[in-house]
Amino acid sequence: MSKGKVDVLLGLQWGDEGKGKVVDVLTPDYDVIARFQGGPNAGHTLEFKGEKYVLRSIPSGIFQGEKVNIIGNGVVLAPDLFMDEARNLEKSGHELQSRLHISKKAHLILPTHRLLDQALEASKGKAKVGTTGKGIGPTYTDKVSRNGLRVGDILEGFETKYANLKDRHMQMLRSLGWTDFDGFEEVERKWMEGVEYLRQFPIVDSEHEINGILRDGKQVLCEGAQGTMLDVDFGSYPFVTSSNTICAGACTGLGIGPNKIGKVYGIMKAYCTRVGSGPFPTELFDATGDQICQQGHEFGSVTGRKRRCGWIDLVQLRYSIMVDGVTELIMMKSDVLDGFDTIKACVAYQLKDGEVTRDFPYDIEEVTPVYKELPGWKTDMTRFTSEEQFPQAFKDYIAFLEQELETPIRIISIGPDREQTIVRK
Q1: Is 208 assigned a catalytic role?
Q2: Could you say which of 16, 24, 31, 338 is catalytic?
Q3: How many other C-beta atoms lie within 10 A of the C-beta of residue 417?
Q4: 153 annotated active-site
Q5: Is the pTM of this model over 0.85?
Q6: Buried b (16+ CB within 10 A) or exposed e, 315-325
Q7: Quick one: which of 31, 43, 199, 384 could link to 389 by a disulfide (CB 3.0–4.6 Å)?
């Protein structure tokens, strides 16, 4: 029996919940931080000591001393983007090459995967998913169809394997009528430079490494990317990502047994956002939605895209808490709602036939949110240092959420900086 435990940290909404900051706050309690799925389409923003960092593929524990960080087998990795990200961190004084380990079984995003992403999205017309164009979907497609290239492949016979997969992709692009290859040679040259750079890192059998770490009694924090509602199985399909973003993805994305998982931290915003296409029941199209967007600086850390904003959706959150097995909640961006007279929370959906449900349905395209209104706290909370300072109306909001979600809220964020984080007693 292993003595160590694995805790999992994941987003409960449509991504962008603020996972990067929370990982950075929690990491002092862990020996190892491991990323288990997703690719460079997910940007985790961290701010401390006046500096701002955006991590795309590298786990957010990289800023904590000598901690080991692992990119797991469930991740898809673009060598050129990884190289840029790592070099930027090295420039700012963070030594990576001994502390960042990369799974041999993680799949590689090829330059042609990005072209396929753009070509396939263009072919869908109005039915497009809203992909970031980073090649994530086509890479996972190659993985499932058993055509993919993995990090371990760069260690031997790589040139032939690469050429074969590139030829396959070029045939697919021709069949889609894609003709835009401007700048491809330069992208490919830099990609190959990224492959060389990747070879400088410890490329490991991460499943053996993590289970060995657990046998030694050490603690591992698994970091998810995106959010539960973007899960390929349980999210708002087809407007989802191509991997399992739920807690179970930590098992398949790192090679750990479900009996090793201890705490499951679920991160949510005090409101809700979504990027790209797809249904969003509580979306606001008015001045309130614009105010939330501006106050929360709701623009993508990787794409710069404006996020769609709305009130918190408790039907959706209950569903996420259920499929993830969440044990503790973390609420981000509470301060964004500081200026509102009234706060709304969706407690149920009215379906097309008029039925009202508290359960998350198969199709949320045409549901109408049923709201409960709560008084706002009208207080600037960004300078608070303990929960005793919270205004009563905010304490009431927390109590209401805990009752509705049947899960304790352990950590509350009241600003972007590492210091603006309150751990409740």
Answers
A1: no
A2: 16
A3: 15
A4: no
A5: yes
A6: bbbbbbbebbe
A7: 384
